[in-house]
Specification:
2 copies of one chain form a homodimer. Chain A is an alpha+beta fold. In chain A, strands 2-3-8-7-4-9 form a 6-stranded antiparallel beta barrel. A two-stranded antiparallel ribbon of chain A has the order 5-6. Chain A is globular and about 45 Å long. The first copy, chain A, contains 2 helices and 9 strands, in the order E-E-E-E-E-E-E-E-E-H-H. Chain A has a single domain, classed as YaeB-like (Elongation Factor Tu (Ef-tu), domain 3, Beta Barrel), CATH 2.40.30. At the A-B interface, strand 1, strand 4, strand 6, strand 7 and strand 9 of A face strand 1, strand 4, strand 6, strand 7 and strand 9 of B.
């Protein structure tokens, strides 16, 4: 299987109109309200989705034209393998976000906690189920170290 | 944007050789060891992945040939919209699993807690980061009701 072709099932509409205006951390997306317009042919697939408080969006990073296998993320000065980051420039430019689902009205999903650029093509929606998706006793490698460094930096500033 | 084309970055090797032998619930995959063979051209992208205890696999349900917009899942007798289920037969046959990462050795990932069929083409790997991916105060719609019904059924049997 050399190539796999998907078609967007809808378009994500958000307040983030270009890459420069994006929050660089997910916490920047908390409370941000957005909508998804689902294409007419797929609306029947939304039945009973509204019972879920959170959904997993799988989408295409449509502005990512190229990639490299190592990237230096925001807030770090060390390069990491692209698969150890959430950078949009990846071999397959697939994005994943867990968002809050506020309402489903016809072909429109009203969502919250969004860190996605406007006009992003949506590929799939899955219900977020803690039994499947939430993990305990998690280690987060270089990201864990960064989190500690960020906290340390704040503390240092507080006392200068 | 009418179609989006991806290429597999590797192949997932598991003990589940056909659809009939698959666990029907994620708990059936707990402790199941598997491997992923990453294609040579992408190995550099794995740098620093090993620091993460859990990873998100995004893959193609390669045995799903068709879909319908409503499905009746295992353990339920009611049809639900396909986007409110994790069924493999979906408009874009994208699968998502959070698995435990035991080791990275060259082009081989040693993983655990796998509920994926052997030979599945892998599209992307992302580090699992609780701050991004774990949600609290979650409602799980029809699935929540099923869980309760399952518990209730067990209790009834215990007293017959």
């Amino acid at each position: 299987m050399n190539s796999i072709t998907y078609r967007p099932i809808g378009i994500i509409r958000t307040p983030f109109k270009n890459k420069e205006g994006m929050p660089i951390q997910p916490s920047g997306g908390i409370g941000v309200r957005s909508t998804i317009k689902i294409s007419a042919e797929y609306i029947a697939g939304l039945k009973d989705l509204e019972g879920f408080s959170h959904i997993i969006l799988i989408y295409h990073f449509h502005l990512s034209k190229d990639y490299s296998l190592t990237v230096t993320p925001f807030l770090d000065d060390q390069p990491h393998g692209v698969f150890a980051t959430r950078a949009p420039e990846r071999p397959n430019s697939i994005g994943l976000s867990v968002v809050k689902l506020n309402a489903v009205k016809g072909d429109i999903l009203d969502i919250e906690n969004v860190d996605i650029i406007d006009g992003t093509p949506l590929l799939d929606i899955k219900p977020y189920v803690p039994e499947f998706d939430a993990q305990v006793e998690v280690e987060t490698g270089w990201l864990g170290k960064i989190e500690k460094r960020v906290h340390k930096t704040k503390s240092d500033l507080r006392f200068t």
